[in-house]
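User: I need a structural model of Phosphoglycerate dehydrogenase from Enterococcus hulanensis for a docking pre-check later this week. Nothing fancy, just the predicted structure tokens so I can convert them on my end. Input:
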Amino acid sequence: MTKPIIFLQREFREEFSDKIQAVAPDYQVKTELTEDELPAVEISVGWSKKFSEQLLTSDRLKWVQSISAGVDYLPLNDFSDRDILLSNGSGIHALSISEHIIGVLLGYYRGLNQSVKNQEQKIWGQDAIHYDQLAGKNLLVVGTGHIGQQLSKSIRSLGVNTYGINTTGHPVEGFTETYSIKNLSKIVSEMDIVVGILPGTHETYHIFNSDIFEKMKKSAIFINVGRGDTVHTKELITALGEKHIAFAALDVFEEEPLPKESPLWNFENVLITPHISGLTVDFQNKFMKIFLANLKSYVANKELSVNQVELKRGY
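Assistant: Understood. Predicted structure tokens for Phosphoglycerate dehydrogenase:
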């Protein structure tokens, strides 16, 4: 019988292929496959539509390790029907995204965004620079997972008061208080900054909509680094145009790349970044810590020890 295959659907350094082989000596580790080899894949690291049909029609596939934290782009129902295990890369990007958010906030509150634009036109313009103090602001983290917890830890040292939203409202270390997601609309009016770090699920689809934006402070900032479809884009555009909120920093969108005809490009009070908040130094090393821990567990007892996704919930 052909040895089962661990299929790496992206390139990793040779040292990691060696570590994988050491943990799983009874498996073949491959980055390229022929059509005849696809039915032998038992573990897929990453997922590509190119191989989706062949892998899903094989009875051999047992586990998919997603490279990203979000898994809404994967065929979760098919995985569930076939009892395929799924784990994600949650936690890898926590520090990078936290630093991105803090950078956005300092850029806005300290007038750095305006200064960059003024510099391009050789305008001194000190009197016109918007400035405020980040310390003392109330920040609501909508999604208190790895990233939300790292953000709270990092930004509290700057004097920011952090509050959290999660599914049930259960307490999470590092937050002044946490609330259930069903209470989001009741809490936002008290917040200076609202940060979306939610996965893409049926429950979170368009959760940031006109009802939320209209209840926010007119001086409030909205930041989204979660999933693009958690925001009702048309209603956000309306909220920005009618100045229900002061500023939005968007790193993710319902359609990517963001179409050139989108009105979002034209707002002075919007910062658009091209899905870069999660770019992470030494990504391979951080990712492999998760995968190798799971691989050891899988080889031993066909179970996962880190970041297993509940397929019905989508995270």
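Before docking, keep this in mind: The mean pLDDT is 97.
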